Amino acid sequence: MNQPSVTAAPLSDSVGRALEVSLRGADELLPRAEWVQKLQQSEASGVPLRIKLGLDPTAPDIHFGHTVVLNKMRQLQDLGHTVIFLIGDFTSTIGDPSGRNSTRPPLTREQIEANAQTYYRQASLVLDPARTEVRYNSEWCDALGSRGMIQLAAKYTVARMMERDDFSKRFAAGQSISVHEFLYPLMQGYDSVALKSDLELGGTDQKFNLLMGRHLQAEYGQPPQCVLTMPLLEGLDGVDKMSKSKNNYIGISEEPNTMFAKVLSISDTLMWRWYTLLSFRTIAEIEALQAEVAAGRNPKDAKVALAKELTTRFHSAAAADAAELDFQQRSKGGVPDEIPEVTLSGAPLGIGQLLKQAGLAPSTSEANRLLDGGGVRVDSAVVSDKGLKLPAGTYVVQVGKRKFAKVTLG
Description:
There is one protein chain. By secondary structure, this protein is of the alpha/beta class. The protein contains 16 helices and 13 strands. α9 links the parallel β5 and β6 (226-230).
């Protein structure tokens, strides 16, 4: 990111540190010079800056990809600034068209309320709840009413709206664009007016919406906010962005053992990207660790440290220690101390049906695929015979490296 020098005058230590924290892992900071000025004004006045992040509760759970911007909020929060966690309960009823090639179905009020209940609880695993301002944009959006909505819509042109990449592509392709979709960036921008934000964070796919906030604040006579976009985190495959639909994600509410093992499954190259975007270690500490690995230290040591840090954050240090021990046992072929216990009937039962009924495979066809690949063990012995029928008894069944169950078959 090549940006010009922001000021001829030297920055104070605290402003320089705040700028360094702001830029860590970021994609763009716009306009950088204005952000430096805001930091300097805050230092001179002692008044913290207002930093906004809005999330629409379109799903009940948050994964590691969502925490990239939450981590940045926490870093700025630790510098003494006010962070605003905005739950878009109103904008969720419109549906964010960002990156979409079709109209997003709006959520019902019941769906939004159910999802919102878990959002802040999960976000609080990253943010400091005692220093976080939680708001819902229905506070001011509902109050706008029809007249206010028309007045707001008058502050932006259709031509400017069609400059937005996803809208222009859909229009050129003859795909429908509903009029209500134009309201989404307007309403997100109006959130910045209502909150008088100094900085808004978001993913790179939110740049248009974030800049809308700057435009509308100027229209309403406010100092325009700065914009900080964060990259979209690559998932476990190291290729596509983390997504539940691609099954390359780690949910922050996943079990500690699963979370730990999934972090260890990423590549050595991707590990450093995750360190930058997910770890709370300083850049100096990360660079020192990289130097140790370059000098011959096993990269797995660094990966274990990252897995323990993240598992501790979302669970506890004790859970992270237990997860590490569990992973070591599994990698050596051992059975964890605590595994699910399942009672089934119908002996003798085919191995494919047993795997399905015990929850170790989603279907018998998937069970057969696992058997063909040598990924199934019964009492530590590899099973490849798809015709195997197990008599009544108790068995320790293992699928892959991480799935175990003690199955009592009657």
